[in-house]
Every structure is written in structure tokens, then in C-alpha cells.
């Protein structure tokens, strides 16, 4: 819409002056105590506005406006990237062996050692470069955005953001982002008001109102800035988004600056045609960049364990090198006897140290270094790069999963980091936000109470859950008595967003026939007038949309409109409403003059407007929380108080948010006195200005007449109960951390089936008479001591209840409020609290602050050592997401702050089911098997080198050609394991979801336990022994070919290497559960590539191919014994694993084995058999509606047995 210019009529009616609307919030700034610090430490910034050529401005060495988020620059990429690579112990080890390969100690050529290392390091660096280039392109896009900058002669030119300097005057237009931190000078409104969306900063979609200084509010034309000069002194750059202290000196007078005048970079101008602002902070000095910290480095449990395996392998290499060097030293010392060298074939005469019997100890030391280089093949050089490649490909599959694509918002899943893929399959505890995560954060007007009568026939999900709690089977079981619950929710809902109200008594104008029609009229008229909502009318369709500061506000105005009280226009001092006239029965337009707006805040908990109607009556219309509104009612205004209180409690039990509506009529004399006092208070520049305003409003917001109450629902997201049920069946514990009241959180817990009727609730709070009496005294130390003792006692009593319950089927739910949680998280209490929480089936923390959410997450993560996942959608969830092992952000309606701080982003909570149970399980299984296989294949290969060394009295002679050694990990065994990591599936996605029990393999870590790892290692040692001894024994005592020649090192090495390639690749084929065409290609292709390479490499001149010169063509291929030995050795090496796997699968199947048998035997569609398998995961303490039904069945069976 911005940019239509004058060529087209504007589609939306706007441009309204709101000086009256924001009487209390956007008024004259006052000098406060903080302003006295200007010029001192921390408040030393000086800005010359609109004076780019002044010498003082030139001398200020402030940051430019170029922002860089990349990890590297062109000059630092090479050194920093190399440093990152060689921080890994394995890579550093290969670097050292690569350097040593240039010395005479090397058992192979330097090129054969360096080339694979360069390949692996190069591949990783390319990946780093690609990822950083993506960040670079984002930086380029942001820095090259354009904004209009004052040129100095009263005109504005479009310039790139990166060229801005401190002191520049910029013009930002509607729906554009602010390019830097600006001081608001003026706007398209006469009183310098503007609307700002801070979604990118704090995650809130609600619009904020900012206002420039009154002295600059008249500068609304470009030409006004010709000759404009101002001098600003303010605080130094800092990360506090909600504070700003400064002064503006203009024409010799000083004016205080506050956060009300500060426009932050990356926030957006909304509902305002344009603003003029002075640049105060640029680039990395801006508050949003000051707040941007590097996300915590997270590593998966498998990756951490992999480091331990690497260290174990290092120890094995050192041990074998030490053993070999000792034996070699002893053998060398005894080598010379009677003037004859026993190992003459090693040519000791040409060596000065290595084989000198007189210096055997030195020879042993040199041999140790040589052996450490030779046995380096125990360490898989391509392990890290292969895993990184696999994880990136796995992330692509997650991103492309159509089942996690939210079509309504066009949002797919996004794996923002690939480091934690396998961690998704090991989650033990989920810590979830409520609003916007479990619920939609989209308010719907569903019920109301007017004149003591309840209207609205809709049934909330909480009410349905409450019905189930009382024994009504509802939707789960059909029953004649379930009509009111099971049918009503499926009535066709309104297509109007924010309105889900159904009641024929007051819809379609029928309210005029109600007994208290006059009260109903005042009720909905109040909803249509008492707000700060801005209407936007599309002149082509005449459809009205509303811009509100909160979803609740929008829901109220929409509800009033749908019920016949349509708010359609606002001017600088008026509100226009179309409504049904009680007398004539016709639709009329009414105009209300807005005199004052008394804004809502967390202290007041109410909002009021004072208006004058068409009859000249002065009305104060007020809405607010029940605990502040009921006490402000007049004696004559309490007619419906008792009924309204009961209905408000009923609405709260149904999980609805409630507000009380009331009004009073003001006398002209009373209003005049109020207006004088409020004007005086708002004009005050003293430090107690706010308290003066509060005192004035307290006197007018009293003696109210009650009209009724509203009830809006923040609905559960689609699929949340089903998702929680599946996650619970998978054995995952679910905690809810919310800022809502305890009653609301409990009701949502029942709706989600996190709580159920037979659960015993352990409630920890400080709502005791003792604490209340202490709070009245105001002694903070005594209150804190007593509160902590009370919380500790309640925790100990809760643990006692758990202990006394023993092993019976009683399930416990722990519910704790924010005040109690503060003491429960103290160092000397938190571990006791954790013990209690872990013993409960469900945990709900109410009234939790963002810091408490993060602290609880840290406690759970560090306390039980299991994988934690935090999920949230708002800026208040960022700490929790970063603290957890895995942070999942919901890309919902509260902005992108949580998503930008998360490891994985999804659009709906229900997608967590597929993310964990399918992708999590697959990734965990794939990575676990992949790592185990890597060490298996390297032990199989490396241990044959050790055995050959032992066979040759540790003479440091490798069994294989140099390039055979180097290319083993790169070409002949790497692609199959990558294919396994990307494509293998033990069971299909359908069965992963059908049998959530399968997920326990990851939670219990059965696929990457030390038992399994050592089992794979043993398999590698066994395979190496079989390959070496069978090949050596088979070739040792008979002629190798028809010419009668016996095999030498080249033939033995070639035969052993062929057997190794076959064994490790066929071992992969045995380990794979799900074959694809790609896996066939890479497995059989790796074997074929070995034969092709051996043939091609053997054709090179002997000076290049050395011992491999034509060895395959002339020696191995023509010999029948070579092919027979290969077949025999391969079968012998693989047979034990095959037998073990067959016995385990048949008699001791793991979870996935059971499901595979289920499918193989055709019982996957047998409900009785499937239920029997599923029940293994439904313990008495499991939450979810399936567990609730099982608990109910157990209760019925117990009652029948009695």
C-alpha cells in the first residue's frame, strides 16, 4: 500500500490524530533522576543531528551502519577455518602423522598421507564456506536496503543502509524497517505519533505507540529540515531494549528523551505514512545487535561419546605401538649373533639406526613413532566429514517432509542446525510453553455474561475435558448421554477470525427482545467504544479490518461488530459506531466524542475511556480484571454482582480469559475538575509524575455500574492432545512452563490429557494464612525465610506421598506456582525438588518468568543427565530454548524471536510427534549404526596391519601398498556408510507412529551403549584375525599359480585387501534394514571400484605403482586360489555376525525387531496383537488420553473384583 503515491486513490482510510487517545502514555517527557547522569560514565554519547560537515561530527569515531553476521571474512577464512578443523583431536593427529610422513620414519610416502587429509579438511572447509556465504548474502541484502536520507537542502535521496552515519536525518515510510536506532522527530500525524511493530525484537505482534517531542512535531514536510540542527546527548550503546536516557538541545532549550522517542533497528513502521528520525546508534552499536549473542554451542550425546571412543582408539594405537616397539627393540638387540644378521633381508647394513643392535633402545623409540603413523588407520579419517555430510542430508529430508508442512501459513519445518539430528531420537523430557505453543494464541470471543445471564452456547475443549473427567466418554465413546458434548463442538464455526460465539438469543438483532435489552446495548456499545483499536476500511470492498494492540482487544471489537455494534471509523477525537436503535428498530450511526483514554497496564489491570455521546452525556466506560473491578462498583451498581461472580468462576474453570465491564455517568462539573487535574499531572516534569496521574485516575474510576463480563478462549492447537498421547506412549515426560494462572494451567492440562481424574495432585504454593499475615507486616527477610521453609516442607511432604504410594498404580501430578518456584530453585532445595518432579507423571509450573523457565530447564538437563527438549513460540521462551539440549521454536504469531534462537523450527506443536518419533528415531538409529560401523571397518583394516607387523617381527613394513592404505577410508568403504546414514529405516514412518514404544530405543540408548560399541569393535578384531590368518595360512604352504611361484608380500597384501573390501561392504549389507537402489549401487559399486582401481593403478609404471605393478592382472586374477580364498574368508568372517543377528532376531528381539516380526508375519493389522505390543509402553504413570482410558479400565476391573 505504501508506494501507491498519488496515482491511485488510497485503499485504506487513515490519517487520524491520536493526541487525545494517548493522553496518559504519549505525553510531554519529563526530566527524571537518570537525566542527571548525562555526560558522565555510560552517558557520554554526543550526536550532532543534521550536521554531517561539522568538525565535531567528523571527530566522533562511531561505528558505521554495516552489520556483519558471518563467522569469517575473506582474510580470516583460511586461518580461522583451519584452526577450527585442527581443534579436533583426530584431525590434529592426522596432521602430525602427515608432517612426520616427510621424514625417513614414515612407513609410506608423504603424498599418500597428505592427500586424504587434504580431501577431508577441504570438504569440511567447503561446507563451512557455503554456510557462511549464505549468511553473507543475507548481510548483503540487509545492508543494501535503501532509505531516504536528508541531503542538506531540504530534499531526501534514497541511500543504502550501510552508508548511514550517526546524526543523519532519515525518512522511513509505512511498512519499512528502521535502518538504525533513531530518535523520533516527527511523523505523518500532527502530534508525532507513530505505530511500531517490534516482532523481530521481542516476538510481540502487538503494535507499540511512540511519540516524538512536541517541539519537533510540526516538522512534517521535507523542506522543514533545511537548516534544522539539534544536539543530542545520551547514554552509550547498551543491550537494554527498554531503556533510553538522553536530552535534545534545540534552539538553546533542552528537552528530555525517553524510550518513548526511540525507534529501534529492525522494528517496522506500521499504520503511519512516514516518520522523520535522527540516527543515534548505528551498526553494531544498535540495541538489537548488542542483544544478539552467539547461540550456545550444543553437541549431541552421541558426538560426546564418539570423542571418548576416539580417545580409546588413541590408547589402543599407543598400546600397540608400545608393544611393537618393545618387541622390536628386543629382537633388534638379539639380531646379531656369531657375526651374522638373522634379519638380513631388512638390509640393516644400509641403516644407521633402525636395525642397529648396538643402539636397540634408540631403534625402539624410532619404531614407536613409525608404528604410531602406521596404526593411524585405526582412526577413521573420514568419520567427521562423513557424519557432517549425512547430517546435512538428514536435515534436508526433515525440511522437505510434507507431513510437517503447515499449508495455512505456508511454513515447512526448518532444521536450523544439523548437529543435533540424532539427539531428536533420545529426548527424555519435553519442557513446553503453553500460550502459542499448546494453544493458538488467537483469541476467540466465545461467551459473555450480561445482566447476570450467560450467553454463548459453544463448548470449549477444556469443558469437553472436564466432561471426560466427570465420567462422560464424549467423543472417544459414543453414548446417548453425550450429545451435548460430542455434537456441539462440531457445529459449523463462524468464518470470522476471533469470533466463535453462537447464541440465537442475542444474534441477528434478537437481543432487543431480551429482558435486559438496555443493559445488553450498553454492554456491546462499551466493547465497540472502549479500546484503542484502529479500523482500516478497504474502499473497494468496504470491508473493515482492525489493528489492535492485543488479540483480546481485536476479539472484543470483532464480537461487538458481529453482534450489531460495528465500530467503523475513528477521527482525531471521535469514534463512530453503527448499531440497532432500540426504539425504531433501524440501524443508525452514532458518534462518540473521545475525551480521555486511561490506558491499561499491569499495575492498573483495567482500561477506561471517557466519552461524550450524542445526547451530551459524559460516560466513563471501563473494563478490567475481576479483582480490581468488583471493588470499584457503586452500591447501586451491584445488581448482578453475585450472578456475574459465579459465571466468571465458571468461565475460568472452562479455561477462558475473563474481563469485567462497567460504566458510570459523569457530571460536567466532576469531569471538568478531573480534566484539569489530569492535565496538570501529565504536564508535570517532576519525578513523581506517574504517581500523580495514578492518583487522579483512582478518583474517577469508582462508583461503577456493573454490566457483565466477557470470556475469550485461547484454543488448543489442532492435534495437541493426540500428539501428547503419542509422546507419552513413547515414554517421554512432558512438563508445562507457563506464565498463566494456576487454574487456567490446570484446566489446559486436563484438556491436553496431561492430567486425569485419578491423578493425585501435589500443589505447591504460598497461599497460606501464615504467609499472608507476614506479607502484611512487610518484613522481607521474614517473608523470604518463612516462604522457603513452607516450600521445602511441601516438597518433602510430596516426596513422602510418592514413597508411601510404593509400586501401586497411583499417578501423581506436580503443580507449582512462580513464587514457590523461586525458592524451589535455590541451590540447597533444587535437587530435592527435582527428585519430586521426576517421580511425578506430569509437572506444571505456573506464573513462571522467562528466567525461571530457563533455570528449570537447566536443572532438568543437568540433574538427570538425559536429553531435554524445550519448545516455545515467544521471546520469553528464548532462554529456555537455548538452555535445553534441543530448542524447538514454533513459528506462530508471536514473531520470530523464538525461531531465531531455536535449533529446529516447526509451525505447529503436533508436528513434534513426527519430528521425534519418525525423524528422531531414524536419525538416532542411523548415526549410531554409522559410528559403530566406522570403528568396526577401521579396526578390521588396522588390526590386519598390526598382525602383519607381528608376523614380520615388527619391522615397520606395511602389508599394503601406500595408496591402498590411503584410499581405504575415502573410496572403498565410505559411500555405503553415508548411504546408510541417509536412507536406512528399521521400520517405516507409519509403524514408527503406530508403535511409539520404538522410541524407547533412543531414550535408553540401546543402540549406542558401550556394550553395543564394544560388540562392533570385537566384530572388527575377529574379522581381522580371520582375514589375516586364513589368508596367510592358505597362501603359505602351496604354489600360488601354475608356474609354481609362492606368494610374496604384494600377493598376500592384495588378497587380504580384497577380502577386507568384500567383508566390510557385505557387513554393511547385513546391517541395513531397508535397501534402496542407491544402497545397492554404493555397496556393489565400492567393490567394483576396488577391482577397477587395482587394475588401473597396476598399469602405471613400477616407479609409481611400486609393489602393485600389474599384480592383479598378472598374479591375482589368473589364480583360482585367489578367488576361492576370497570366498572362503568372506563367508568365515561374516558367519558369526549373521548367526548372532539371526538368533537375536528370533529369540531376543529388540523393539524394532518385534515390529519387524509383526509386519513379516502379517499381524500388523491385528488389533488385539498390536494393542498387546503397544501396552508395553503404557505404564500407570503415563499421561495422555490412551493412558487415561487404560486407567479407567483398571479402575472398573478393581471395582468389579470388589
From TrEMBL:
UniProt-annotated location(s): Membrane
Residues where ATP binds: 433-435, 553, 600, 623, 657, 738-740, 847, 853, 876-877
Domain P-type ATPase N-terminal: 47-111
GO molecular function (one): ATPase-coupled intramembrane lipid transporter activity
Domain of life: Eukaryota
Catalytic residues identified in the record: 433 (4-aspartylphosphate intermediate)
EC number: 7.6.2.1
Keyword presence, Transcription regulation: no
Residues annotated as transmembrane: 89-107, 113-130, 309-331, 364-385, 934-951, 963-983, 1013-1035, 1055-1074, 1081-1100, 1120-1140
Major place of residence: membrane
Domain (P-type ATPase C-terminal): residue spans on this chain: 899-1149
Catalytic reactions on record: ATP + H2O + phospholipidSide 1 = ADP + phosphate + phospholipidSide 2
Positions bound to Mg(2+): 433, 435, 873, 877
Membrane topology: Multi-pass membrane protein
Pfam families according to UniProt: Cation_ATPase, PhoLip_ATPase_C, PhoLip_ATPase_N
Matches recorded under PROSITE patterns: ATPASE_E1_E2
Cellular compartments per GO CC: plasma membrane
UniProt keyword annotations, A-Z: ATP-binding, Magnesium, Membrane, Metal-binding, Nucleotide-binding, Translocase, Transmembrane, Transmembrane helix
GO terms of biological process kind: phospholipid translocation; protein localization involved in auxin polar transport
Family: Belongs to the cation transport ATPase (P-type) (TC 3.A.3) family. Type IV subfamily.
PANTHER family (alphabetical): PHOSPHOLIPID-TRANSPORTING ATPASE, PROBABLE PHOSPHOLIPID-TRANSPORTING ATPASE
Function of the protein: Involved in transport of phospholipids.
Protein name stated in the entry: Phospholipid-transporting ATPase
Organism: Raphanus sativus (Radish)
Lineage, broadest ranks: Eukaryota, Viridiplantae, Streptophyta, Embryophyta, Tracheophyta
Protein's gene: LOC108817420
Amino acid at each position: 500500500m505504501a508506494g501507491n503515491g498519488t496515482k491511485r486513490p488510497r485503499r485504506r482510510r487513515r490519517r487520524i490524530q491520536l493526541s487525545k487517545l494517548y493522553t496518559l502514555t504519549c505525553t510531554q517527557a519529563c526530566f527524571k533522576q537518570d537525566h542527571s547522569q548525562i555526560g558522565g560514565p555510560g552517558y557520554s554519547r554526543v550526536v550532532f543531528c543534521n550536521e554531517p560537515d561539522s568538525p565535531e561530527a567528523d571527530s566522533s569515531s562511531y561505528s558505521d551502519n554495516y552489520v556483519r553476521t558471518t563467522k569469517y571474512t575473506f582474510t580470516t577464512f583460511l586461518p580461522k577455518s583451519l584452526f577450527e578443523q585442527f581443534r579436533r583431536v583426530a584431525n590434529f593427529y592426522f596432521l602430525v602423522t602427515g608432517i612426520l610422513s616427510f621424514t625417513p620414519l614414515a612407513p609410506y610416502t608423504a603424498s599418500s598421507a597428505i592427500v586424504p587429509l587434504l580431501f577431508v579438511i577441504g570438504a569440511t572447509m567447503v561446507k563451512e564456506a557455503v554456510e557462511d556465504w549464505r549468511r553473507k548474502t543475507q548481510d548483503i541484502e540487509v545492508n543494501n536496503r535503501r532509505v531516504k536520507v536528508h541531503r542538506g537542502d531540504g530534499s531526501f535521496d534514497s541511500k543504502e543502509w550501510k552508508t548511514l552515519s550517526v546524526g543523519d536525518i532519515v525518512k522511513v515510510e509505512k511498512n519499512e524497517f528502521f535502518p538504525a536506532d533513531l530518535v523520533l522527530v516527527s511523523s505523518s500525524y500532527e502530534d508525532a505519533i507513530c505505530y511500531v511493530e517490534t516482532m523481530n525484537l521481542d516476538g510481540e505482534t502487538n503494535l507499540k505507540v511512540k511519540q516524538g517531542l512536541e517541539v519537533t512535531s510540526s516538522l512534517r514536510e521535507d523542506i522543514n529540515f533545511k537548516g534544522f540542527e539539534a544536539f543530542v546527548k545520551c547514554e552509550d550503546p547498551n543491550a537494554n531494549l527498554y531503556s533510553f536516557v538522553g536530552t535534545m538541545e534545540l534552539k538553546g532549550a533542552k528537552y528530555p528523551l525517553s524510550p518513548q522517542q526511540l525507534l529501534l533497528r529492525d522494528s517496522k513502521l506500521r499504520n503511519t505514512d512516514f516518520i522523520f528520525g535522527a540516527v543515534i546508534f548505528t551498526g553494531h552499536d544498535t540495541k538489537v545487535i548488542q542483544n544478539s549473542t552467539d547461540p550456545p554451542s550444543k553437541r549431541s550425546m552421541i558426538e560426546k561419546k564418539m570423542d571418548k571412543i576416539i580417545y580409546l582408539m588413541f590408547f589402543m594405537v599407543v598400546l600397540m605401538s608400545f608393544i611393537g616397539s618393545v618387541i622390536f627393540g628386543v629382537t633388534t638387540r638379539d639380531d646379531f649373533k656369531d657375526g651374522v644378521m638373522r634379519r638380513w633381508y631388512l638390509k640393516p647394513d644400509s641403516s644407521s639406526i633402525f636395525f642397529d643392535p648396538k643402539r636397540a633402545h634408540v631403534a625402539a623409540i624410532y619404531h614407536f613413532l613409525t608404528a604410531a603413523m602406521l596404526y593411524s588407520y585405526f582412526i577413521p579419517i573420514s568419520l567427521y566429514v562423513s557424519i557432517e555430510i549425512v547430517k546435512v542430508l538428514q536435515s534436508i529430508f526433515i525440511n522437505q517432509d510434507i507431513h510437517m508442512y503447515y499449508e495455512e501459513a505456508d511454513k515447512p519445518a526448518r532444521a536450523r542446525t544439523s548437529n543435533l539430528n540424532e539427539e531428536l531420537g533420545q529426548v527424555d523430557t519435553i519442557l513446553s510453553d503453553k500460550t502459542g505453543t499448546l494453544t493458538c494464541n488467537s483469541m476467540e470471543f466465545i461467551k459473555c455474561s450480561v445482566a447476570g445471564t450467560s450467553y454463548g452456547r459453544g463448548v470449549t475443549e477444556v469443558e469437553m475435558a472436564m466432561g471426560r473427567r466427570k465420567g462422560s466418554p464424549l467423543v472417544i465413546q459414543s453414548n446417548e448421554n453425550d450429545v451435548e458434548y460430542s455434537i456441539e463442538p462440531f457445529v459449523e464455526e463462524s468464518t470470522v477470525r476471533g469470533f466463535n460465539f453462537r447464541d440465537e438469543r442475542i444474534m441477528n438483532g434478537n437481543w432487543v427482545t431480551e429482558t435486559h435489552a438496555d443493559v445488553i446495548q450498553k454492554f456491546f456499545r462499551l466493547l465497540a467504544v472502549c479500546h484503542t483499536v484502529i479500523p482500516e476500511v478497504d474502499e473497494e470492498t468496504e470491508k473493515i479490518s482492525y489493528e489492535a494492540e492485543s488479540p483480546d482487544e481485536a476479539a472484543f471489537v470483532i464480537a461487538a461488530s458481529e453482534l450489531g455494534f460495528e465500530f467503523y471509523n475513528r477521527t482525531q477525537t471521535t469514534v463512530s459506531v453503527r448499531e440497532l436503535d432500540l426504539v425504531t428498530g433501524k440501524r443508525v450511526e452514532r458518534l462518540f466524542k473521545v475525551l480521555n483514554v486511561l490506558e491499561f497496564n499491569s499495575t492498573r489491570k483495567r482500561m477506561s475511556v471517557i466519552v461524550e455521546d450524542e445526547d451530551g452525556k459524559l460516560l466513563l466506560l471501563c473494563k478490567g480484571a475481576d479483582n480490581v473491578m468488583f471493588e470499584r462498583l457503586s452500591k447501586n451498581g451491584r445488581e448482578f454482582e453475585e450472578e456475574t461472580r459465579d459465571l466468571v468462576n465458571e468461565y475460568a474453570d472452562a479455561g477462558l480469559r475473563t474481563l469485567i465491564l462497567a460504566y458510570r455517568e459523569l457530571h460536567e462539573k466532576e469531569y471538568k475538575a478531573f480534566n484539569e487535574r489530569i492535565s496538570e499531572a501529565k504536564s508535570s516534569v517532576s519525578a513523581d509524575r506517574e504517581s500523580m496521574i495514578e492518583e487522579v485516575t483512582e478518583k474517577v474510576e469508582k462508583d461503577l455500574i456493573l454490566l457483565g463480563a466477557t470470556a475469550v478462549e485461547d484454543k488448543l492447537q489442532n492435534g495437541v492432545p493426540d500428539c501428547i498421547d503419542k509422546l507419552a506412549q513413547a515414554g517421554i515426560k512432558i512438563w508445562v512452563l507457563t506464565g498463566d494462572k494456576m487454574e487456567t494451567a490446570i484446566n489446559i492440562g486436563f484438556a491436553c490429557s496431561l492430567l486425569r481424574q485419578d491423578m493425585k495432585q501435589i500443589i505447591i504454593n504460598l497461599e497460606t494464612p501464615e504467609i499472608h499475615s507476614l506479607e502484611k507486616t512487610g518484613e522481607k527477610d521474614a517473608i523470604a525465610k518463612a516462604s522457603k521453609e513452607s516450600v521445602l516442607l511441601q516438597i518433602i511432604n510430596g516426596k513422602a506421598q510418592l514413597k508411601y504410594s510404593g509400586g501401586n498404580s497411583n499417578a501423581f501430578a506436580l503443580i507449582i506456582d512462580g513464587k514457590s518456584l523461586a525458592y524451589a530453585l535455590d541451590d540447597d532445595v533444587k535437587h530435592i525438588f527435582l527428585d519430586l518432579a521426576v517421580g511425578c507423571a506430569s509437572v506444571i509450573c505456573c506464573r513462571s518468568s522467562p528466567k525461571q523457565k530457563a533455570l528449570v530447564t537447566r536443572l532438568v538437563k543437568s540433574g538427570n543427565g538425559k536429553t531435554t527438549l524445550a519448545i516455545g513460540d515467544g521471546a520469553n521462551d528464548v532462554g529456555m530454548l537455548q538452555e535445553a539440549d534441543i530448542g524447538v521454536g514454533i513459528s506462530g504469531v508471536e514473531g520470530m524471536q523464538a525461531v531465531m534462537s531455536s535449533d529446529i523450527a516447526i509451525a505447529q506443536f503436533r508436528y513434534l510427534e513426527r519430528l521425534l518419533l519418525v525423524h528422531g528415531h531414524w536419525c538416532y538409529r542411523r548415526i549410531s549404526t554409522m559410528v559403530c560401523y566406522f570403528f568396526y571397518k577401521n579396526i578390521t583394516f588396522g588390526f590386519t596391519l598390526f598382525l602383519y607387523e607381528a608376523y614380520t617381527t615388527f619391522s615397520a613394513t606395511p602389508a599394503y601398498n601406500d595408496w591402498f592404505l590411503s584410499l581405504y577410508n575415502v573410496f572403498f568403504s565410505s559411500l555405503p556408510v553415508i548411504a546408510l546414514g541417509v536412507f536406512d529405516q528399521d521400520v517405516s514412518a507409519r509403524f514408527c507412529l503406530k508403535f511409539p514404544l520404538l522410541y524407547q530405543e533412543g531414550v535408553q540408548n540401546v543402540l549406542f551403549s558401550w556394550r553395543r560399541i564394544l560388540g562392533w569393535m570385537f566384530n572388527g578384531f575377529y574379522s581381522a584375525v580371520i582375514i589375516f590368518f586364513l589368508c596367510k595360512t592358505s597362501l603359505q604352504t602351496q604354489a600360488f599359480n601354475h608356474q609354481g611361484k609362492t606368494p610374496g608380500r604384494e600377493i598376500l597384501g592384495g588378497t587380504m585387501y580384497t577380502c577386507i573390501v568384500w567383508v566390510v561392504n557385505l557387513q554393511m549389507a547385513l546391517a541395513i534394514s531397508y535397501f534402496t537402489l542407491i544402497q545397492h549401487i554404493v555397496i556393489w559399486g565400492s567393490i567394483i571400484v576396488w577391482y577397477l582401481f587395482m587394475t588401473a593403478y597396476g598399469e602405471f609404471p613400477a616407479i609409481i605403482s611400486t609393489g602393485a605393478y600389474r599384480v592383479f592382472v598378472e598374479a591375482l586374477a589368473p589364480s583360482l586360489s585367489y578367488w576361492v580364498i576370497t570366498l572362503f574368508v568372506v563367508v568365515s568372517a561374516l558367519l558369526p555376525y549373521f548367526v548372532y543377528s539371526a538368533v537375536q532376531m528370533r529369540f531376543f528381539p529388540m523393539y524394532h525387531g518385534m515390529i519387524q516380526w509383526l509386519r513379516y508375519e502379517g499381524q500388523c493389522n491385528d488389533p488385539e496383537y498390536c494393542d498387546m505390543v503397544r501396552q508395553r509402553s503404557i505404564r500407570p504413570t503415563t499421561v495422555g488420553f490412551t493412558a487415561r482410558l487404560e486407567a479407567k479400565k483398571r479402575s472398573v476391573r478393581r471395582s468389579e473384583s470388589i
